[in-house]
Design goal:
- This protein is an alpha/beta fold.
- The chain is 45% helix and 18% strand.
- The chain is built from seven helices and seven strands.
- Strands 1, 2, 3, 4, 5, 6 and 7 form a seven-stranded mixed β-sheet that branches.
- Helix 3 links the parallel strand 2 and strand 3.
- Helix 2 packs parallel to helix 3.
- The longest helix has 30 residues.
- The radius of gyration is 19 Å and the shape is globular.
- The protein starts with a helix and ends with a strand.
Length: 192
């Protein structure tokens, strides 16, 4: 029996040559490469973006995603996402900027979704009347980080068979999803 994922690639010939190809850690350097490739990409037709990453800075993933969203909103241009090999953490944050019906994975690719991570030490020193403010500031940072995480989670599951509650539950322990499962759950349109 033929491999349907391999044969499926012929249905999406544009995905064979992404205009923007990103790999490595999602960080300032990736964002700079993204902006350079975006500036050099054709201005007509669908824009295809591929990424392979084990993760990185979620804010850089959000920044690249915002650029994609703004491009779509202001030009009406179609944008397609192609995840290759690994789309972990901040890579999935970037993926969430693309509508579910514009997301693709290559066969064998895995997504990894998890909660944002924080490592922090709160140093309490000084007059007692000032210490509550220090703790409140850290609490506000945590609360707003959770709000940002929720926005991304809602975007990832929009239109899929995965509920926000299910993602919240599974994200606490690093949810790895194989390409075919991601397709079956409606997190991506197809596997090529």
């Amino acid at each position: 029996m033929p491999d349907t994922a391999a044969n499926n690639a012929v249905n999406y010939p544009l995905l064979a040559r992404p205009h923007i190809q990103l790999h490595g850690t999602v960080d300032d350097m990736m964002y700079a490469r993204f902006k350079t490739q975006l500036a050099g990409a054709p201005t007509e037709g669908p824009l295809i973006v591929s990424i392979t990453t084990l993760g990185g800075d979620p804010e850089m993933g959000r920044a690249m995603g915002d650029d994609i969203r703004l491009l779509r909103d202001y030009t009406g241009r179609e944008t397609l996402f192609l995840g290759k090999v690994a789309v972990y953490s901040a890579g999935a944050t970037f993926m969430s900027a693309f509508p579910g019906n514009s997301r693709f994975l290559t066969r064998g690719t895995r997504l990894m979704l998890h909660e944002r991570l924080m490592t922090s030490t709160v140093q309490l020193a000084g007059p007692l009347s000032t210490l509550a403010g220090t703790l409140k500031a850290k609490l506000h940072e945590i609360e707003h980080s959770i709000m940002i995480q929720e926005e991304g989670f809602r975007d990832i599951v929009a239109g899929s068979k995965v509920s926000l509650d299910e993602l919240r539950e599974k994200a606490t322990s690093n949810w790895y999803i194989e390409a075919e499962e991601a397709r079956d759950l409606g997190l991506v349109l197809d596997v090529i």
